[in-house]
Amino acid sequence: MAAVKDPREALAVWPIMASGRALYSLIMLVVVALIVQIGTARWFSPEPAERLGQLLADAQKRAADPVLARQAADVLYQPLGVWTRLDAVVRRQQSDGSLTPAQRVLHPWILAYLYAVQLIGTRLAALLACFELLLVLVLVAGIDGLVQRAIRVEEAGRESATKFNLAKAMRKVGLPLGCLLYVAAPFTVDPGWIMGPLMVVVVGSVWGQASWMRKYL
């Protein structure tokens, strides 16, 4: 017979697992966004670095908190640009042009990559700026959903596992997909057009999960 897990042990492990999943999701988000940004920039323009530079300038203008946007771009640029020594290649080209033949051929793509990294960091800052509002809305929706669940329990209302699972799927798919659509968008986009519907989906799914949770736990 399988041993029953101690709830205290599960509660202690949960923050570690949640942090690991969040880090994995962030890494995958950045990798996919980089591929999409560089690939589509080459598709739309013969000079991908120039196009990505224009998108970066526009994203910085639209940033609600320019300081946070700059810091987020620097945090992402440090490991992906400086530690990989790709930033040094661009600086060497700008200073004296002493590049190897391979570096000279790859220089336009390296420059496009560095612009894409800064663009993704700037857009991630926009997502981070909305986190506090999203957290408050999720908390309110969760409390209201639990109230609706309590009313349903008292009135012996029927359960619906289908609605609960649908709300859960909306949250698990909607949040990462909405973030990816904004971060990887290969064109100028206002954060409000993405974050507004994204918040509606996340808040609605949290309310649905809380209100349609099983009556008897």
UniProtKB/TrEMBL annotation:
The chain crosses the membrane at residues 21-44, 124-148, 169-187. Keywords: Membrane, Transmembrane, Transmembrane helix. InterPro entries: DtrJ-like (IPR022266). This is DUF4400 domain-containing protein. The lineage of its organism: Bacteria, Pseudomonadati, Pseudomonadota, Betaproteobacteria, Neisseriales.
